[in-house]
């Protein structure tokens, strides 16, 4: 069967559409694109998507540069917003959509359906745990480098981290106390060991400042988070309940200068049977067992793998006693 895709409808956004989150209950697609506008697109008729809502999230109050990511779960919409000064702490805005709908119908203040939580510098990818009880956001903490008039450099390098917001309680009772932070401070002073393991850390930098969490995947049981540290060629493993970075695992490398992978097939012919007292051994299905145990042997040489000589030898098989 040949699969094919057919375009049946489209919507042209004036703000762009970089990150989206789908609300199947309301059949709305929420989109952000780096500025402070949030759009909700009604796709109940996929042939003719239309804008259902658009508003400026700058009205949340804090000095904001724009939205970097958005996620939806269980009636809650989470938006990651960087600060106007990107090295300052950003925020995650959490919207109770049921409350927002009721407030809008009554002509009330929509901000009553919004909670704002301070997180780390430059919050990027935001996501929910599978059960929707926690919101996780990767705080990149990218460095800001300024070249001074005398040629020297001024660097502000915030620490990278992952913020974990417990949203399991009543929405109205949520406060900043519901935010926990998984940071990398315990790895400061272990840079030499991490480099030896294959983690890339900038010279003279400490681990907490050098890591820049980028993207989050959560285990199906909601207990662990796996966070890419893109610039470090590594993954951080986080225990969500304790908000602790348990480990930093390097991803290794491939040496593409060694050329393309190649496949070599070795055909073993006239191998003969494995016999005991002149009688060929057979499988339970009555098939004769030959030397080598299989009809062909294939090896694949990859650019990253060292090669070695191969000499075929008989495969061990049970002998009749």
Written overview of the protein:
The chain has 321 residues and is mainly beta. The chain has two domains: 19-250, C-terminal (heme d1) domain of cytochrome cd1-nitrite reductase (Methanol Dehydrogenase, Chain A); 254-321, no CATH class. Helices cover 7% and strands 40% of the residues. The chain contains three helices and 22 strands. The chain has helices spanning 97-106, 191-197, 207-210, and strands spanning 19-23, 28-32, 37-42, 50-56, 64-73, 76-83, 89-96, 114-121, 123-128, 134-139, 144-147, 153-156, 161-166, 179-183, 213-218, 224-229, 234-239, 244-250, 262-267, 275-276, 279-280, 296-301. A four-stranded antiparallel beta sheet has the order 1-2-3-4, with no helix packed on it. A hairpin with a 5-residue loop joins strand 11 and strand 12 (153-156). The protein is extended and about 95 Å long. The chain starts with 18 loop residues before the first strand and ends in a 20-residue tail after the last strand. The model is unreliable at 304-321 (pLDDT under 50).
């Amino acid at each position: 069967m040949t699969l094919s895709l057919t375009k049946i409808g489209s919507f042209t956004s004036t703000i762009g559409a970089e990150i989206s989150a789908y609300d199947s209950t309301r059949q709305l697609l929420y989109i952000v694109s780096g500025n402070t506008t949030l759009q909700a697109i009604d796709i109940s008729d996929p042939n003719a998507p239309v804008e259902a809502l658009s508003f400026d999230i700058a009205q949340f109050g804090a000095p904001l540069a724009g939205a970097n990511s958005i996620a939806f779960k269980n009636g809650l919409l989470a938006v990651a917003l960087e600060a106007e000064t990107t090295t300052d702490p950003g925020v995650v805005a959490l919207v109770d959509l049921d409350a927002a709908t009721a407030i809008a119908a009554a002509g009330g203040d929509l901000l009553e359906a919004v909670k704002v939580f301070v997180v780390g510098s430059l919050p990027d990818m935001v996501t929910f745990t599978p059960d929707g009880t926690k919101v996780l956001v990767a705080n990149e903490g990218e460095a800001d480098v300024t070249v001074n008039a005398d040629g020297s450099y001024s660097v502000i390098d915030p620490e990278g981290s992952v913020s974990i917001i417990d949203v399991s309680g009543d929405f109205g009772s949520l406060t900043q106390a519901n935010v926990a932070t998984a940071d990398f401070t315990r790895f400061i002073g272990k840079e030499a060991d991490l480099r030896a393991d294959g983690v890339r850390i900038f010279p003279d930098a400490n681990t907490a400042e050098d890591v820049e969490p980028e993207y989050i995947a959560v285990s199906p049981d909601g207990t662990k988070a796996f966070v890419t540290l893109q610039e470090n060629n590594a993954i951080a493993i986080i225990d969500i309940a304790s908000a602790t970075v348990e480990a930093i695992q390097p991803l290794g490398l491939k040496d593409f200068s060694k050329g393309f992978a190649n496949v070599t097939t070795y055909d073993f012919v006239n191998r003969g049977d494995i016999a005991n007292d002149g009688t060929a051994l057979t499988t339970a299905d009555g098939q004769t067992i030959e030397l080598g145990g299989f009809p062909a042997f294939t090896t694949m040489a990859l650019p990253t793998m060292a090669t070695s000589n191969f000499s075929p030898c008989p495969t061990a098989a049970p002998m009749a006693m």
